[in-house]
Design goal:
The chain is α/β, with parallel strands linked by helices. The protein contains five helices and five strands, in the order βαβαβαβαβα. It has a five-stranded parallel β-sheet, with helices on both faces. α4 links the parallel β4 and β5. α2 packs parallel to α3. The longest helix is centred in the last third of the chain and has 14 residues. It is globular.
């Protein structure tokens, strides 16, 4: 079973994302901030990470960059979910190591499509 770590600081967004993923047969672990997310990546060894971008403390891009700099976690695909949909934001995300960018508001189909795209490519 594919294990997905969701890093999201908004409880309602976390609930929705978890529901979407579990309904499609994925195992979900979650963190409500990037610092906790980094600890869980080491502990849980997820197959995929989905992160919000705009969070207190470390943002999703910094979180992604930290994962990609670590040889133990650099190959974990990262999906960034955010309302920041400008091309410049997407370009910056790619430079930080984001594999797929999903713009909020998203549908269940958007999330599952993103997960499948990184599952097939890694």
């Amino acid at each position: 079973m594919v294990k997905i770590l969701v890093v999201e600081d908004t409880p309602s967004e976390m609930q929705l994302m978890t529901l979407y993923l579990k309904d499609n047969g994925y195992l979900v672990v979650s963190a409500n901030n990037a610092k906790d997310g980094l600890n869980l990546v080491t502990k849980e060894k997820p197959d995929i990470v989905i992160t919000d971008v705009v969070m207190e403390g470390m943002n999703g891009f910094e979180f992604c960059r930290t994962l990609k700099k670590n040889p133990d976690t650099e190959k974990i695909p990262v999906i960034a979910c955010t309302s920041r949909s400008q091309d410049l934001d997407k370009l910056w995300g790619k430079k930080q190591g984001v594999d797929v960018y999903v713009t909020k508001p998203y549908s269940q189909e958007d999330i599952i499509k993103a997960v499948r795209s990184v599952s097939n490519s890694h």
